[in-house]
Each structure stands twice: as C-alpha cells, then as structure tokens.
Fold this sequence. Notes:
Blueprint lengths: L1 H20 L15 E3 L14 H10 L2 E8 L5 E3 L6 H4 L10 H4 L14 H8 L5 E5 L8 H9 L6 E5 L2 H10 L5 E5 L2 H5 L4 H7 L4 H4 L3 E5 L6 H9 L4 E6 L2 H7 L5 E4 L7
Parallel strand pairs: 1-2, 1-9, 2-4, 4-5, 5-6, 6-7, 7-8, 8-9
Antiparallel strand pairs: 2-3
Helix pairs in contact: 2-5
Amino acid sequence: MRYKKKIPFxxxxxxAYLFAVSPRLTNRPNQMPKVYYAHRGLHDNISDxxxxxxxxxxxxxxxxxxxxxxxxxxxDGKVVVVHDFNLKRICHVDKDVxxxxxxxxxxxxxxxxxxxxxxxKDVLKLVDGRAPLIVELKYKNEKSKICEKAQAIxxxxxxxxxxxxxxxxxxxxxxxxxxxxxxGQLSMNYQREEGDRGLQFFVMRHLLMNFLTRPDFIxxxxxxxxxLSKNVxxxxxxxxxxxxxxxxxxxxxxxxxxxxxxxxxxxxxxx
Length: 271
C-alpha cells in the first residue's frame, strides 16, 4: 500500500516539474539565424576594440558574425551598451553606470582605449540590420525601466534581434507587452560557479519560473552542458538552447551536441 501511494505522488511531482519548466509551446516566433554570435562584439580588451564598443561591433559585422550585447540605463535614463553595473573593471572608476549621466559616462575610456561606452541607438545605427543581435537586458531592481526604454529604441530598428535576461521579470514584461518578440531565459549553475546558494538561485538554475515567463530559448552557461532543465526544454519541448560563453575550439566541440546556438569570445570558431 505504501508503494501504491508513492507512485501517484511521484507522477504528480513529475507533472508539476514539467509544467514549471516548459517554455512557450504555441505561436513561437521565428528562430534566430544559425550563425556564431560574438560575445560583446568581436573584441579584445587589450586592443583598440574592447568589449561592447562600436569598434568591436564593427569588427563582428565585417567578419559575418551575429552579436551579443548588454544594455542598461544611465542616471539620466539613456540606454547604453555595457555589461557590468559597476565601471571599475572596464573604466577603472568605482562607480555604477546608473550613478552617472551619459555626458559623464562618455568621458571615460574603455580599457584605456579611444573607445567609449556607446548609446544603444548608435550601436543599432552601426549594425543597421547586417548582423542578428542577442540583446541582454540588465535588470537591476524593480524600479528599472530598461525594458520600456530599450524596446522603444528597438521599435524603430529593422534588423533581426531577440532579447534575453537572467531576471525573469524582463521575460514576463515582454510576454505581457511584446509577445511576438523572441525572448530567452539566461541561467547557470549559480552554486558551482558563483557560490550563490538559497532558494532563488535554485529556482533560477532549474528554470522553475518558465511557467510564468514561457521563454522561446534557454541561454545557459556552456560549462553546464548537461543541465537537466535546460536539456528537458531542448529535448522534450524543442526549445532552442544557446551556449554562453564558449572560449576555445575544444570547448565548442565538446558542447556542440548539447546546444543549438553558440556565443563565443577569445578565438575564431571553425565552420
């Protein structure tokens, strides 16, 4: 009798899990082009084309790659292309991006180069539809207007793009306001790679908010190529899987069977 009771519970738990991690299943948007995507542009941080700069994006376009980039807001509400919330790593200034106006921000060299942190609209003008874009929205807190402001700019863009974020709130916003736009959930093994523990990181690692956000693709740390929920989404539900960030050819070859798209940096992928 004990085992008979256990079987229905196990089936119910499995069903609840599959419901929780399932992506969008109907009315999916068109998939992104199957090209390699240059992480923050085709960059080298000890060159004249450091990450997330116009020079790096120009090189990616000229080389025929897609582009992954990051957007967030300045103090005066400008949408700029930069990854870190804090400027210490790339500009040697210990201030947050949203603590400075754009006029203040553009005085700071990126990695001591001639390049500056660009406006999102200037990046789109440069790319001009010549490369598909993966746009990561950096969501800092519940007061952030990054979704509204970034999409207002994208509404005038004619090129191919999708959006992604680590924060489920971004995907939920797009689901409610722009459901036709391809949206992706970023994730990773937070405990192993970052040492982050707790319920929220468990939920994010295992994609347990998908039932609310219904992503169109999963972008996952390539070092966790066998991640259960990512592979369930890919194999069972046919949800494309994007590998980030692949840093050598051997890593690309190793994770190729587990992903559909690849974001790379630091080497030139073999066709």
